[in-house]
Specification:
The structure is a homodimer. In chain A, helix 2 crosses helix 7, helix 7 packs antiparallel against helix 9 and helix 7 packs parallel to helix 10. In chain A, strands 1-2 form a two-stranded antiparallel ribbon. Chain A starts with a helix and ends in a 19-residue tail after the last helix. Chain A has about 210 residues and is mainly alpha-helical. In chain A, strand 1 and strand 2 form a beta hairpin. At the A-B interface, helix 1, helix 2, helix 3, helix 7 and helix 10 of A face helix 1, helix 2, helix 3, helix 7 and helix 10 of B.
């Protein structure tokens, strides 16, 4: 029963991810999304969009990865993907410490295995991790588009910044990448997303 | 690309599950839980508590089942587990219609496979479904206990009513069932949950 006590402590601690708010909203724009429901959405996408993963992708590992990937935010909080590099470095250190603490609640062997899976997602080297990260980029793009780009507008994000992240989707899946690239073009056409600033004129748009 | 369009329509429709509220609260009692984050929690539990499933359980199928199991609530809404039988019958009919519509958004073969998995969960006959349903019973029990039983109290639920559902956990896993039975006894001891009414005295407590 010792194992079960540690495992349930982990399960209860995980509940706190439901209170970590992301910058993105639900598709209907009604409120900000939390990281637990975001993780559920990614796992559902792994089930439904698995056919676009490269051959040999282990969708069951991808699913577990996306279920776990944001748990570290319980301690480290969510960082907006368009934050600056220094903020991303601080965040990475905070997330490593969080992974030690959270996966450390589990029985040692199980904790090490899940921590390794989390780190694999972060490193984005294996095919499973590359596909999992592609889903993690695609989901907020879909939601932002559905919500008429309000998160982009509120944060002064322009098309070039969004496109700079689309390669993460393309590397995980050619079809999903192509879809994402077209969606960005469509978002600009509809006025949901501002076009790239014209660098020749010296004009620039700063993020808020 | 035809398949992808239908699949993404399903993925976007699924987003609405984040707005379906359950009767249970988060563990800290701060707000009601929604069915998407509840489904995430169950999938995480399938990963972490898999060792308590009967031998031969396919945890990857269990995970997919719990990810999907509440999607029908997008149309049918959530029904409190302690509602009366007539309400449960109306709910079952509404959920079947919802399953037709929602899984019908997908390419036919994929939609039929996921609809069958949803129905398997509902029927609770296969070992995978019996374990998945055990997790679905255990999670709100854990949350209610953590939140000092406020949902039980608000709805006038007594220990006998909770125990009448614990067999669903025991049938999925002896260890998890034993844990749940002890937790109910503990909840009564702490005053989180009212004991069974003394039927000899003719006293009874009606649910609200």
């Amino acid at each position: 029963m010792d194992n079960l006590d540690s495992q349930l402590r982990f399960v209860l601690e995980a509940d706190r991810l439901k209170s970590v708010l992301r910058v993105s909203t639900l598709c209907d724009g009604s409120r900000r999304e939390n990281s637990a429901e975001h993780s559920w959405h990614l796992a559902l996408m792994a089930t439904v969009l698995g056919q676009y993963a490269p051959p040999g992708t282990d969708l069951s590992r991808v699913t577990t990865m996306v279920l776990l990937h944001d748990l570290v935010e319980i301690d480290a909080g969510d960082l907006y993907v368009y934050a600056d590099e220094a903020a991303h470095e601080r965040q990475a250190a905070a997330e490593r410490a969080a992974a030690e603490r959270l996966f450390g609640l589990l029985p040692p062997e199980q904790g090490a295995a899940l921590r390794a899976l989390w780190f694999e997602f972060e490193e984005r080297v294996t095919p499973d991790a590359i596909f999992a990260r592609a889903l993690d980029r695609l989901q907020p793009l879909l939601a932002n588009y559905q919500a008429s780009g309000r998160t982009w507008q509120a944060n002064g994000i322009t098309a070039d910044q969004v496109l700079a992240r689309v390669h993460l989707i393309e590397e995980g899946s050619a079809e999903l990448g192509e879809y994402a690239r077209n969606l960005v073009a469509d978002a600009v056409r509809h006025g949901y997303l501002a076009p790239a600033p014209d660098t020749d004129s010296g004009e620039s748009i700063h993020t808020g």
